[in-house]
Design goal:
Blueprint: E1 7-10, E2 16-22, E3 30-34, H1 46-56, E4 65-67, E5 78-84, E6 87-92, H2 93-97, E7 104-107, E8 116-118
Antiparallel strand pairs: 1-2, 2-3, 4-8, 5-6, 6-7
């Protein structure tokens, strides 16, 4: 996917929190996308899209993820361990947290097909 027209949205400290993909040539309508490239709402005006991304931040990167595709048990709960425009690298979350060796899986960025999905919330006793 061509992301050359996407505009990065940054916090005050310079950290990128997402992107605005133009829907209208004059950028009056944009599609807000999180840092993974997932659309987070319908198209909206520029200021609303910027506000949505600023409010959302990057905290979702810390949650466990699953991956659509044929990757066996490694997809049960994954952690994002690297993220750049060169790709997203995920690995088995419990093994990563324990600093144990584990398979690394590369996902293309942006993940506009939303192959990565938040893992289902675990029931708490």
């Amino acid at each position: 996917m061509d992301t050359s027209q996407w505009i990065s949205v940054q916090r005050d400290d310079g950290e990128i929190v997402g992107y605005l993909e133009p829907v209208a040539e004059d950028y009056s309508r944009v599609l807000p996308r999180n840092i993974l490239g997932h659309a987070i709402s319908d198209a909206c005006d520029y200021a609303d899209g910027d506000g949505l991304l600023q409010e959302r931040g990057i905290k979702e990167l810390m949650q466990p993820w699953t991956l659509n595709g044929d990757f066996g048990e490694a997809t049960s709960e994954l952690a994002i361990i690297e993220l750049s425009t060169q790709g997203i690298v995920v690995a088995n979350a419990p093994r990563t947290k324990a600093l144990k060796p584990t398979e690394r899986i590369h996902v293309d960025w942006p993940d506009v097909e939303q192959r990565l999905k938040p893992a289902a919330s675990r029931a708490r006793p």
